[in-house]
Amino acid sequence: MISKQYQDMLSGKSVIRELSEYATARGQEIGYENVFDYSLGNPSVAAPKAYNDKLIELISAGDPMLVHGYSPSLGIPAVREKIAASLNRRFQMNYKGEDIFMASGAAGALAHAFRLVTAPGDEILTFAPFFPEYNPYVNLTGAKLRVVPASFADFQINFAAFEEMLNENVHAVLVNTPNNPSGIAYSAQTLAQLAEILTVKEKEFGHDIWLISDEPYREIVFDGKDIPYVSRFYPRTLSCYSFSKSLSLPGDRIGYVAVNPASGVSKMLATMCGQISRGIGHNCPTALMQLAVADCCDMTADLSVYETNMNLLYNELTSLGFEIVRPGGTFYMFPRALEADAVAFSKKAMRHDLILVPGNSFGAPGYFRIAYCVDTDKVERSLEAFRRFVKAEY
Protein backbone atom coordinates (compact mmCIF):
# COMPACT_ATOMS: atom_id res chain seq x y z
CA MET A 1 0.00 0.00 0.00
CA ILE A 2 1.21 3.52 -0.82
CA SER A 3 1.16 5.89 2.15
CA LYS A 4 -1.86 8.16 1.77
CA GLN A 5 -0.48 10.60 4.33
CA TYR A 6 2.58 11.40 2.25
CA GLN A 7 0.72 11.12 -1.02
CA ASP A 8 -1.69 13.81 0.19
CA MET A 9 1.28 16.04 0.99
CA LEU A 10 2.16 16.16 -2.72
CA SER A 11 -0.65 18.66 -3.18
CA GLY A 12 0.77 20.89 -0.46
CA LYS A 13 4.08 21.83 -2.06
CA SER A 14 6.07 24.65 -0.46
CA VAL A 15 5.03 28.05 -1.82
CA ILE A 16 8.63 29.20 -1.38
CA ARG A 17 9.94 26.37 -3.56
CA GLU A 18 7.26 26.96 -6.20
CA LEU A 19 8.21 30.64 -6.45
CA SER A 20 11.90 29.76 -6.63
CA GLU A 21 11.20 27.34 -9.47
CA TYR A 22 9.19 30.03 -11.28
CA ALA A 23 12.10 32.47 -10.87
CA THR A 24 14.50 29.94 -12.37
CA ALA A 25 12.20 29.33 -15.34
CA ARG A 26 11.67 33.07 -15.84
CA GLY A 27 15.42 33.55 -15.70
CA GLN A 28 15.86 31.19 -18.62
CA GLU A 29 13.58 33.49 -20.62
CA ILE A 30 15.00 36.92 -19.77
CA GLY A 31 18.27 36.15 -17.97
CA TYR A 32 18.32 35.36 -14.26
CA GLU A 33 20.17 38.63 -13.60
CA ASN A 34 16.93 40.39 -14.60
CA VAL A 35 14.75 38.40 -12.19
CA PHE A 36 14.74 39.85 -8.68
CA ASP A 37 14.31 36.59 -6.84
CA TYR A 38 13.70 37.16 -3.14
CA SER A 39 12.09 33.77 -2.56
CA LEU A 40 14.64 31.35 -1.13
CA GLY A 41 16.73 31.76 2.01
CA ASN A 42 19.94 30.36 0.52
CA PRO A 43 23.12 32.05 1.87
CA SER A 44 24.84 34.15 -0.77
CA VAL A 45 28.30 34.64 0.72
CA ALA A 46 31.27 32.30 0.52
CA ALA A 47 32.28 29.97 3.32
CA PRO A 48 35.40 31.09 5.22
CA LYS A 49 38.71 30.15 3.61
CA ALA A 50 39.74 28.52 6.88
CA TYR A 51 36.86 26.08 6.58
CA ASN A 52 37.73 25.10 3.02
CA ASP A 53 41.40 24.81 3.95
CA LYS A 54 40.45 22.49 6.82
CA LEU A 55 38.43 20.29 4.46
CA ILE A 56 41.39 20.02 2.10
CA GLU A 57 43.72 19.20 4.99
CA LEU A 58 41.40 16.51 6.31
CA ILE A 59 40.89 14.90 2.91
CA SER A 60 44.54 15.03 1.88
CA ALA A 61 46.29 14.26 5.16
CA GLY A 62 43.69 13.08 7.66
CA ASP A 63 43.23 9.54 8.91
CA PRO A 64 40.96 7.99 6.24
CA MET A 65 39.20 5.81 8.80
CA LEU A 66 38.33 8.88 10.88
CA VAL A 67 37.55 11.25 8.01
CA HIS A 68 35.48 8.86 5.90
CA GLY A 69 34.37 6.26 8.44
CA TYR A 70 31.23 6.05 10.51
CA SER A 71 31.30 8.41 13.46
CA PRO A 72 29.85 7.49 16.86
CA SER A 73 26.06 7.74 16.93
CA LEU A 74 26.12 10.84 19.14
CA GLY A 75 28.86 12.55 17.16
CA ILE A 76 32.65 12.61 17.41
CA PRO A 77 33.56 13.22 21.08
CA ALA A 78 36.31 15.75 20.34
CA VAL A 79 33.92 17.73 18.13
CA ARG A 80 31.24 17.77 20.83
CA GLU A 81 33.81 19.02 23.34
CA LYS A 82 34.94 21.85 21.04
CA ILE A 83 31.38 23.00 20.40
CA ALA A 84 30.58 22.93 24.12
CA ALA A 85 33.69 24.99 24.84
CA SER A 86 32.75 27.50 22.14
CA LEU A 87 29.24 27.96 23.55
CA ASN A 88 30.64 28.39 27.04
CA ARG A 89 33.12 31.07 25.91
CA ARG A 90 30.58 33.05 23.93
CA PHE A 91 27.43 32.71 26.04
CA GLN A 92 28.69 32.07 29.58
CA MET A 93 27.16 28.61 29.68
CA ASN A 94 28.36 25.42 31.36
CA TYR A 95 28.02 22.79 28.63
CA LYS A 96 30.10 19.63 28.47
CA GLY A 97 30.65 17.56 25.38
CA GLU A 98 28.15 15.02 26.72
CA ASP A 99 25.41 17.70 26.45
CA ILE A 100 25.87 18.05 22.68
CA PHE A 101 24.37 15.83 19.95
CA MET A 102 25.58 16.27 16.38
CA ALA A 103 22.82 16.50 13.78
CA SER A 104 22.22 17.10 10.09
CA GLY A 105 21.59 20.82 10.32
CA ALA A 106 18.92 22.56 12.37
CA ALA A 107 16.19 20.48 10.74
CA GLY A 108 17.84 17.29 11.99
CA ALA A 109 18.34 18.87 15.39
CA LEU A 110 14.66 19.84 15.60
CA ALA A 111 13.58 16.36 14.51
CA HIS A 112 15.34 14.97 17.57
CA ALA A 113 14.27 17.73 19.95
CA PHE A 114 10.56 17.29 19.23
CA ARG A 115 10.78 13.56 19.86
CA LEU A 116 12.85 14.01 23.03
CA VAL A 117 10.21 15.91 24.99
CA THR A 118 6.81 15.10 23.49
CA ALA A 119 4.63 12.05 22.89
CA PRO A 120 1.96 11.60 20.21
CA GLY A 121 -1.01 13.78 21.07
CA ASP A 122 1.02 16.39 22.97
CA GLU A 123 0.92 20.00 21.81
CA ILE A 124 3.80 22.28 20.84
CA LEU A 125 3.17 26.03 20.69
CA THR A 126 5.04 28.36 18.37
CA PHE A 127 4.62 32.02 17.49
CA ALA A 128 3.55 33.67 14.24
CA PRO A 129 5.14 34.57 11.99
CA PHE A 130 6.84 31.18 11.81
CA PHE A 131 8.75 28.97 9.36
CA PRO A 132 6.07 26.96 7.51
CA GLU A 133 8.04 23.73 7.59
CA TYR A 134 7.41 23.56 11.34
CA ASN A 135 4.03 22.07 10.43
CA PRO A 136 5.37 18.81 8.93
CA TYR A 137 8.36 18.80 11.27
CA VAL A 138 6.06 18.64 14.30
CA ASN A 139 2.85 17.05 13.06
CA LEU A 140 4.58 14.04 11.53
CA THR A 141 5.96 13.13 14.97
CA GLY A 142 2.40 12.61 16.22
CA ALA A 143 2.52 15.80 18.28
CA LYS A 144 0.39 18.77 17.26
CA LEU A 145 1.68 22.22 16.35
CA ARG A 146 -0.48 25.18 17.40
CA VAL A 147 0.39 28.72 16.40
CA VAL A 148 0.05 31.76 18.66
CA PRO A 149 -1.14 34.83 16.69
CA ALA A 150 1.47 37.46 15.94
CA SER A 151 2.14 40.71 17.74
CA PHE A 152 2.24 42.77 14.54
CA ALA A 153 3.46 45.97 16.18
CA ASP A 154 6.90 44.54 16.97
CA PHE A 155 6.83 40.77 16.23
CA GLN A 156 7.77 40.03 19.83
CA ILE A 157 5.58 37.47 21.64
CA ASN A 158 1.85 38.06 21.92
CA PHE A 159 1.73 37.07 25.59
CA ALA A 160 -2.00 37.52 26.06
CA ALA A 161 -2.74 35.05 23.24
CA PHE A 162 0.07 32.76 24.41
CA GLU A 163 -1.27 32.42 27.95
CA GLU A 164 -4.74 31.78 26.60
CA MET A 165 -3.44 28.90 24.44
CA LEU A 166 -1.07 27.47 27.05
CA ASN A 167 -2.90 24.47 28.48
CA GLU A 168 -1.92 21.23 30.21
CA ASN A 169 -1.52 19.44 26.85
CA VAL A 170 1.41 21.71 25.94
CA HIS A 171 4.73 20.01 26.62
CA ALA A 172 7.01 22.23 24.52
CA VAL A 173 7.24 25.76 23.17
CA LEU A 174 9.17 26.44 19.97
CA VAL A 175 10.90 29.78 19.39
CA ASN A 176 12.97 31.03 16.47
CA THR A 177 15.14 34.05 17.20
CA PRO A 178 16.35 35.84 15.16
CA ASN A 179 13.21 34.99 13.30
CA ASN A 180 12.41 33.65 9.86
CA PRO A 181 10.50 35.46 8.31
CA SER A 182 10.41 38.73 10.30
CA GLY A 183 14.12 39.15 11.01
CA ILE A 184 13.21 40.18 14.56
CA ALA A 185 15.23 39.00 17.56
CA TYR A 186 13.46 38.44 20.86
CA SER A 187 14.58 40.87 23.52
CA ALA A 188 15.94 39.83 26.90
CA GLN A 189 12.70 41.17 28.41
CA THR A 190 10.62 38.96 26.11
CA LEU A 191 12.64 35.85 26.94
CA ALA A 192 12.57 36.57 30.68
CA GLN A 193 8.79 36.96 30.60
CA LEU A 194 8.43 33.75 28.59
CA ALA A 195 10.58 31.86 31.10
CA GLU A 196 8.58 33.21 34.02
CA ILE A 197 5.28 32.09 32.49
CA LEU A 198 6.62 28.62 31.69
CA THR A 199 7.93 28.20 35.22
CA VAL A 200 4.55 29.12 36.71
CA LYS A 201 2.64 26.86 34.31
CA GLU A 202 4.92 23.88 34.98
CA LYS A 203 3.89 24.02 38.64
CA GLU A 204 0.24 24.48 37.73
CA PHE A 205 0.18 21.58 35.24
CA GLY A 206 2.47 19.28 37.22
CA HIS A 207 4.82 18.49 34.32
CA ASP A 208 7.84 19.93 32.54
CA ILE A 209 7.43 22.33 29.63
CA TRP A 210 10.48 22.39 27.39
CA LEU A 211 11.64 25.38 25.38
CA ILE A 212 12.98 24.41 21.95
CA SER A 213 15.08 27.17 20.42
CA ASP A 214 15.63 27.08 16.65
CA GLU A 215 18.59 29.41 16.17
CA PRO A 216 20.42 29.00 12.82
CA TYR A 217 20.51 32.81 12.34
CA ARG A 218 22.11 33.46 15.73
CA GLU A 219 25.22 35.10 14.27
CA ILE A 220 23.51 37.29 11.66
CA VAL A 221 22.88 40.35 13.81
CA PHE A 222 22.61 44.03 12.89
CA ASP A 223 23.54 47.37 14.46
CA GLY A 224 26.37 45.81 16.47
CA LYS A 225 23.94 44.30 18.96
CA ASP A 226 24.16 41.02 20.83
CA ILE A 227 21.32 38.52 20.55
CA PRO A 228 20.23 37.09 23.93
CA TYR A 229 21.09 33.38 24.19
CA VAL A 230 17.80 31.63 24.91
CA SER A 231 19.22 28.89 27.15
CA ARG A 232 20.45 31.47 29.65
CA PHE A 233 16.84 32.32 30.51
CA TYR A 234 15.31 28.90 31.09
CA PRO A 235 16.86 25.64 32.34
CA ARG A 236 14.80 23.23 30.22
CA THR A 237 15.99 24.58 26.87
CA LEU A 238 17.07 22.60 23.82
CA SER A 239 19.18 24.74 21.49
CA CYS A 240 18.93 23.57 17.88
CA TYR A 241 21.65 24.99 15.66
CA SER A 242 22.97 24.81 12.14
CA PHE A 243 26.21 26.10 10.63
CA SER A 244 24.31 26.66 7.37
CA LYS A 245 24.01 30.42 7.85
CA SER A 246 26.92 31.41 10.08
CA LEU A 247 29.50 29.60 7.93
CA SER A 248 27.42 29.57 4.70
CA LEU A 249 27.25 25.77 4.60
CA PRO A 250 23.61 24.91 3.83
CA GLY A 251 24.56 21.97 1.63
CA ASP A 252 26.97 20.49 4.17
CA ARG A 253 24.08 19.68 6.54
CA ILE A 254 25.79 20.01 9.89
CA GLY A 255 24.45 21.25 13.22
CA TYR A 256 23.67 20.09 16.74
CA VAL A 257 21.32 19.93 19.70
CA ALA A 258 22.71 21.47 22.87
CA VAL A 259 20.80 20.46 26.02
CA ASN A 260 20.99 23.01 28.81
CA PRO A 261 22.93 21.35 31.66
CA ALA A 262 20.83 23.33 34.16
CA SER A 263 17.98 20.97 33.27
CA GLY A 264 19.66 18.23 35.28
CA VAL A 265 19.03 15.66 32.51
CA SER A 266 21.24 17.00 29.73
CA LYS A 267 23.50 13.95 29.39
CA MET A 268 20.52 11.60 29.34
CA LEU A 269 18.67 13.60 26.68
CA ALA A 270 21.72 13.94 24.45
CA THR A 271 22.24 10.18 24.73
CA MET A 272 18.56 9.55 23.96
CA CYS A 273 19.06 11.36 20.65
CA GLY A 274 21.07 8.36 19.50
CA GLN A 275 18.06 6.14 20.09
CA ILE A 276 15.77 8.54 18.23
CA SER A 277 18.18 8.34 15.29
CA ARG A 278 17.53 4.61 15.09
CA GLY A 279 13.87 5.29 14.41
CA ILE A 280 14.19 8.13 11.90
CA GLY A 281 17.25 6.93 9.98
CA HIS A 282 19.41 9.87 11.00
CA ASN A 283 22.51 7.82 11.85
CA CYS A 284 24.78 10.81 12.42
CA PRO A 285 26.06 13.42 9.93
CA THR A 286 29.31 12.89 8.05
CA ALA A 287 32.52 12.74 10.04
CA LEU A 288 34.24 15.06 7.55
CA MET A 289 31.85 17.94 8.20
CA GLN A 290 31.94 17.40 11.95
CA LEU A 291 35.73 17.60 12.00
CA ALA A 292 35.80 20.68 9.77
CA VAL A 293 33.30 22.76 11.75
CA ALA A 294 34.95 21.79 15.05
CA ASP A 295 37.96 23.96 14.16
CA CYS A 296 35.78 26.79 12.81
CA CYS A 297 32.91 26.96 15.30
CA ASP A 298 33.97 30.39 16.59
CA MET A 299 34.16 31.80 13.04
CA THR A 300 31.60 33.18 10.62
CA ALA A 301 31.56 33.92 6.93
CA ASP A 302 31.57 37.62 6.00
CA LEU A 303 27.96 38.29 6.94
CA SER A 304 28.10 42.08 6.56
CA VAL A 305 26.46 42.00 3.12
CA TYR A 306 23.14 41.07 4.71
CA GLU A 307 23.04 44.24 6.81
CA THR A 308 23.98 46.29 3.73
CA ASN A 309 21.15 44.70 1.75
CA MET A 310 18.69 45.14 4.61
CA ASN A 311 19.38 48.86 4.89
CA LEU A 312 19.02 49.40 1.13
CA LEU A 313 15.65 47.66 1.03
CA TYR A 314 14.35 49.04 4.31
CA ASN A 315 15.11 52.64 3.37
CA GLU A 316 13.64 52.34 -0.13
CA LEU A 317 10.52 50.39 0.80
CA THR A 318 9.61 52.59 3.76
CA SER A 319 9.98 55.63 1.48
CA LEU A 320 7.50 53.94 -0.89
CA GLY A 321 4.97 53.61 1.90
CA PHE A 322 5.55 50.05 3.15
CA GLU A 323 5.12 49.38 6.86
CA ILE A 324 8.08 47.34 8.13
CA VAL A 325 9.30 46.32 11.55
CA ARG A 326 13.03 46.84 11.06
CA PRO A 327 14.92 43.52 11.19
CA GLY A 328 17.48 42.96 13.91
CA GLY A 329 19.17 40.10 12.05
CA THR A 330 18.84 37.19 9.59
CA PHE A 331 18.50 37.90 5.87
CA TYR A 332 14.72 38.33 5.87
CA MET A 333 12.33 41.25 5.93
CA PHE A 334 8.57 41.01 6.45
CA PRO A 335 6.71 44.11 5.22
CA ARG A 336 2.97 44.62 5.20
CA ALA A 337 1.63 44.28 1.65
CA LEU A 338 -0.01 47.27 -0.02
CA GLU A 339 -3.33 45.43 -0.10
CA ALA A 340 -5.04 43.00 2.24
CA ASP A 341 -4.49 40.01 -0.06
CA ALA A 342 -0.74 39.30 0.01
CA VAL A 343 -1.14 36.50 -2.55
CA ALA A 344 -2.67 38.92 -5.06
CA PHE A 345 0.02 41.45 -4.14
CA SER A 346 2.80 38.94 -4.83
CA LYS A 347 1.25 37.93 -8.16
CA LYS A 348 1.23 41.58 -9.23
CA ALA A 349 4.88 41.85 -8.20
CA MET A 350 5.71 38.95 -10.52
CA ARG A 351 4.60 41.10 -13.48
CA HIS A 352 7.61 43.27 -12.64
CA ASP A 353 9.93 40.28 -12.10
CA LEU A 354 9.91 40.73 -8.34
CA ILE A 355 9.59 37.36 -6.61
CA LEU A 356 8.12 37.93 -3.14
CA VAL A 357 6.64 35.29 -0.83
CA PRO A 358 3.15 35.98 0.59
CA GLY A 359 2.93 35.68 4.36
CA ASN A 360 -0.11 33.38 4.54
CA SER A 361 1.91 30.21 5.10
CA PHE A 362 3.96 32.03 7.76
CA GLY A 363 0.80 32.62 9.79
CA ALA A 364 0.59 36.30 8.83
CA PRO A 365 -1.81 37.03 5.96
CA GLY A 366 -1.36 40.53 4.56
CA TYR A 367 2.42 40.42 4.87
CA PHE A 368 5.17 39.16 2.56
CA ARG A 369 8.72 37.91 2.99
CA ILE A 370 11.82 39.21 1.24
CA ALA A 371 14.87 36.91 1.43
CA TYR A 372 17.64 39.38 0.59
CA CYS A 373 20.53 36.89 0.55
CA VAL A 374 21.49 38.03 -2.95
CA ASP A 375 24.28 40.14 -4.41
CA THR A 376 24.11 43.78 -3.36
CA ASP A 377 24.29 44.85 -6.99
CA LYS A 378 21.07 42.96 -7.64
CA VAL A 379 19.41 44.52 -4.60
CA GLU A 380 20.34 47.96 -5.88
CA ARG A 381 18.94 47.21 -9.34
CA SER A 382 15.75 45.83 -7.82
CA LEU A 383 14.92 49.17 -6.19
CA GLU A 384 13.81 50.63 -9.52
CA ALA A 385 11.66 47.53 -10.08
CA PHE A 386 9.97 48.16 -6.73
CA ARG A 387 9.34 51.78 -7.74
CA ARG A 388 7.80 50.72 -11.06
CA PHE A 389 5.72 48.05 -9.32
CA VAL A 390 4.27 50.43 -6.76
CA LYS A 391 3.59 53.16 -9.32
CA ALA A 392 1.96 50.81 -11.81
CA GLU A 393 -0.13 48.73 -9.42
CA TYR A 394 -0.94 51.01 -6.47
Using only C-alpha atoms, the radius of gyration works out to 21 Å
What's the end-to-end separation, in Å?
A: 51 Å
Order of helices and strands: HHEHHHEHEHEHEHEEEHHHEHEEEH
Strand content: 5-15%
* H/I helix tally: 14
Strand element count: 12
Shape: globular
| Helicity level | 40-55%
What is the CATH C level class of the largest domain, in words?
A: Alpha Beta
Topology at a glance:
Layout: H1 4-9, H2 15-30, E1 36-37, H3 49-61, H4 64-67, H5 77-91, E2 100-103, H6 105-117, E3 123-127, H7 134-139, E4 144-148, H8 159-165, E5 170-176, H9 188-205, E6 210-214, E7 237-242, E8 255-259, H10 266-280, H11 287-294, H12 304-319, E9 332-333, H13 342-350, E10 354-355, E11 357-358, E12 368-371, H14 376-393
Parallel strand pairs: 1-10, 3-4, 3-5, 5-6, 6-7
Antiparallel strand pairs: 2-8, 7-8, 9-12, 11-12
Give me some keywords for this one.
three-stranded antiparallel sheet, 14 helices, Aspartate Aminotransferase, domain 2, Aspartate Aminotransferase, domain 1, alpha/beta, seven-stranded mixed sheet
Explain how this protein is built:
The strands form three sheets. A seven-stranded mixed beta sheet has the order 2-8-7-6-5-3-4, with helices on both faces. A three-stranded antiparallel beta sheet has the order 9-12-11. A two-stranded parallel ribbon has the order 1-10. It folds into two domains: 4-47 and 302-393, Aspartate Aminotransferase, domain 1 (Alpha-Beta Complex), CATH 3.90.1150.10; 49-294, Aspartate Aminotransferase, domain 2. The chain has 394 residues and is an alpha/beta fold. Helix 9 links the parallel strand 5 (170-176) and strand 6. The protein is built from 14 helices and twelve strands. The longest helix is centred in the middle third of the chain and has 18 residues, at 188-205.
